[in-house]
From TrEMBL:
<dbReference type="InterPro" id="IPR002347">
    <property type="entry name" value="SDR_fam"/>
</dbReference>
<dbReference type="GO" id="GO:0016491">
    <property type="term" value="F:oxidoreductase activity"/>
</dbReference>
<keyword id="KW-0560">Oxidoreductase</keyword>
<keyword id="KW-0521">NADP</keyword>
<dbReference type="GO" id="GO:0016020">
    <property type="term" value="C:membrane"/>
</dbReference>
<dbReference type="Pfam" id="PF13561">
    <property type="entry name" value="adh_short_C2"/>
</dbReference>
<comment type="similarity">
    <text>Belongs to the short-chain dehydrogenases/reductases (SDR) family.</text>
</comment>
<dbReference type="Pfam" id="PF00106">
    <property type="entry name" value="adh_short"/>
</dbReference>
<dbReference type="InterPro" id="IPR036291">
    <property type="entry name" value="NAD(P)-bd_dom_sf"/>
</dbReference>
<protein>
    <submittedName>
        <fullName>Putative short-chain dehydrogenase/reductase SDR</fullName>
    </submittedName>
</protein>
Length: 263
């Protein structure tokens, strides 16, 4: 994007991924309405730019678009450099990337888990410059942690091993025999891994409030608008966690706006 200086004044700075439509776009809109400067990101530059312009046309001037493909390290590095150059810090990171339809299980895990991990690590240094940093991982109640055993003693290595074992079983067509879920198995495993990673990284960075939230079954293009919630309703939980005052609330899972359980 153009090398121009962006001035959001003293506003908090938020990055929202997967924000060109649906829940991500609504999260961006609600954060902007609360006085937050929003960096709206999406893989598709044209759609992302149009989404940012639509918010500006609605009166939310402190919104800017930056292209981001969470599966591409160079794209993540570009965003991190942009944030460092323009704002020198980051207050809120809302990761909304979700793939439910995909060519392979590996593609799904690359977006919903590995990409999120890489983005988190790249932006943590900027989040640590904030007085009250927040990370919100938009996840799903389908991502339960039973497959991971003792959820209280999770490590990143254990989570990675589970994902690797799943992909190996996919490769050898042994999903059913190994007891993995048969329906949307890659999506479920990716969200279980994301939920587990949320707990792990919350312990790793105790000064950052890091939580996961299920927005609920929402009417979006991903489910052919068969959901029961509007995007306005679905965005309430992620926005609540992004703006929550209590920094001690971390490593938790929320079902919409209510504290729930990873299990």
């Amino acid at each position: 994007m153009a090398e121009t200086t962006i001035n959001f004044g003293s506003k908090k700075i938020a990055v929202v991924t997967g924000a060109n439509k649906g829940i991500g776009l609504e999260i961006s809109k609600q954060l902007a309405s609360k006085g937050v400067g929003v960096v709206l990101t999406a893989r598709d530059a044209k759609r992302g730019t149009e989404a940012a312009e639509s918010l500006k046309a609605s009166g939310f001037s402190d919104v800017v678009f930056h292209q981001l493909d969470v599966t591409a390290p160079t794209s993540i590095a570009s965003l991190a450099n942009f944030l460092k150059t323009q704002f020198r810090k980051l207050d809120i990171l809302v990761k909304q990337n979700t793939v439910q339809t995909y060519e392979t299980a590996a593609d799904c895990l690359k977006t919903n888990y590995y990409g999120i991990k890489q983005l988190t690590e790249a932006l943590v240094p900027l989040l640590q410059k904030s007085e009250a940093p927040k990370i919100v991982n938009v996840s799903s109640t389908l991502g339960q942690l039973r497959e991971l055993g003792d959820a209280d003693n999770l490590t990143e290595e254990k989570v990675d091993k589970l994902v690797e074992e799943f992909l190996e079983d996919v490769k050898h067509d042994s999903i059913e025999s190994k007891g993995w879920p048969l329906d949307i198995s890659a999506y479920i495993v990716s969200k279980a891994a994301l939920n587990a990673y949320t707990r792990v990284v919350a312990k790793k960075y105790p000064h950052i409030a890091i939580n996961a939230v299920s927005p609920g079954y929402t009417k979006t293009d991903l489910n052919n608008n068969t959901g029961i919630l509007t995007v306005e309703e679905a965005a309430l939980g992620p926005v609540k966690l992004a703006l929550i005052a209590e920094t001690g609330i971390s490593g938790l899972f929320f079902d919409r706006t209510e504290d729930s359980t990873f299990d």
